[in-house]
Amino acid sequence: MKSISFRFRIYLVTLAMVLVLGMIGLMITEGFSLLDSFYFIIVTIATVGYGDIHPVTPVGKMLVVGIILAGVGCFVGVVANAIEYMIEMRERTQRIEKLNMLIGVFYSEVGTKLLKKFSVKDPGIQEIRSALSVTNNWSDDDFKKAHARLKEHSYRLDSREIPLDELDTFLSHHKIFLLALLENPQLFEHDRFTDLLHAVFHLAEELVARDRLVNLPETDYDHLSIDLTRVYSQLVIEWLMYMHYLKKKYPYLFSLAMRTNPFDENATAIVQ
């Protein structure tokens, strides 16, 4: 995408220079008016060539040769790159749509459940609850303010307060599902979500690597607390961004996600 955009800008700038310099040259050598110069260059590089205006001086003819050699190639390059860019944008939009479907499946199967387990153990949850109480009346600005608030929040989870055996069983049960997500090529479009999956996998591996998950040394509990907090902080921010996407694109999915908000203690899928 970046290479296409860069090439397009180069062709566009070069074409603009050919137009400006060519118009100035024709006005000087042939005495064309500004409009006639512009008209002549456009019909020349577009290979239309009506022949109603043409250079008569040797210098003018050489100038037109230069315009043809440089202008026609740039014009074709601009058109070709513009088409390629539009096709790439359309394909990228489709890839992002598929990626957001994967994110939705992740939260449905794993993410939302983890958020429920973690949020009740977050000592600072009351500080950010308002930023997570998404409603149907939220605007883009509301989501932006909530995102800024969540980025400033100091996330803290204590592994001593988390039932690690239960968490280990849960993550082990979903290991194949998580592996399938990581293998999906769509993830290359979303670095944040990929980082989140890596954090979840790392936490799962840490838990599996221990023979027991009780009566651990204090230093080990502190280490696991860091891993838990890493997953929790990324889960929260990604969840808010996914809610914003649903509200824009899929109101019916947003409705269910809103009614099952993992940060709302009274949340229920039943429509009241």
Explain what the structure shows.
- This protein is mostly helical and 272 residues long.
- 74% of the residues lie in helices and 0% in strands.
- The chain contains ten helices and no strands.
- It has helices at residues 2-29, 34-45, 58-119, 125-132, 140-152, 164-173, 175-182, 191-208, 218-249, 251-259.
- The two termini are 46 Å apart.
- The model has no long low-confidence stretch (mean pLDDT 87).
Radius of gyration: 30 Å
Portion of residues in helices?
over 70%
Low-pLDDT segments: none
Structural class comes to: mainly alpha
Per DSSP E runs of 2 or more residues, the count of β-strands stands at: 0
Give a brief description:
With 272 residues, the chain is mainly α. The protein has 10 helices and no strands.
Give descriptors for this structure:
single chain, 272 residues, mainly alpha, Helix Hairpins, 2 domains, 10 helices, elongated
Lay out the secondary structure.
Elements: H1 2-29, H2 34-45, H3 58-119, H4 125-132, H5 140-152, H6 164-173, H7 175-182, H8 191-208, H9 218-249, H10 251-259
Helix pairs in contact: 1-2, 1-3, 3-9, 4-5, 5-9, 6-8, 7-8, 8-9, 9-10
